[in-house]
Amino acid sequence: MRADVLTPDWDVVLGSQSFDWTLAFAVFHHLPGRENRAKLLRVLAARLVPGGTLAMSNWQFTRSERLQRRLRPWSELGLRDSDLEPNDYLLSWERSGRHGLRYVHLLDEAEARALAELAGLAVKEIFSADGISNNLTEYVLTVK
């Protein structure tokens, strides 16, 4: 299924289904706006069966010197830091000879826990993995 999770009522594509497990891989750190992240998590949590698990991965790009070198000023897009929320970043992105800019929100453990609580989820486990340093992604496992 494909859906734009920032559009109203995007979840109608799911019908009336409920799920034992939901995985949000590399989703929340690319959603601008805390309220957008909170709304999506509430919708996903509502689709879990009682005792169901939701796992999310949150990119921790500031843990990498190489990725920190890709940080770009918001002025490149005509924006000021005050136009954004705390922990919103702009990174350069190069792949296969193409260049672009990428919005990324640094969703840290404190914010992940707060969002989970707002969605009625209990944090079961948080751990880091991925990348050469094995800490470039923070995985948050929650239960309804």
Describe it for me?
The structure is a single chain. The protein has 144 residues and is an alpha+beta fold. It has one domain: Rossmann fold, CATH 3.40.50.150. Helix content is 19%, strand content 35%. The chain is built from three helices and seven strands. It has a four-stranded mixed β-sheet with strand order 1-2-7-6. Strands 3-4-5 form a three-stranded antiparallel β-sheet, with no helix packed on it. β4 (88-95) and β5 form a beta hairpin.
Defining traits:
144 residues, alpha+beta, 3-stranded antiparallel sheet, 4-stranded mixed sheet, 7 strands, 19% helix, Rossmann fold, 35% strand
What is the CATH superfamily label? Vaccinia Virus protein VP39
What is the share of helical residues? 10-25%
Shape: globular
Secondary-structure element order, as H and E?
A: EHEHEEEHEE
Classify the secondary structure makeup into a structural class: alpha+beta
Indicate the CATH topology: Rossmann fold
Largest sheet: 4 strands, mixed
Radius of gyration from CA coordinates: 16 Å
Rounded mean pLDDT is 95
Q: What distance separates the N and C termini? A: 23 Å
What's the number of helices?
3
Kindly summarize this structure in a few lines.
With 144 residues, the chain is of the alpha+beta class. 19% of the residues lie in helices and 35% in strands.
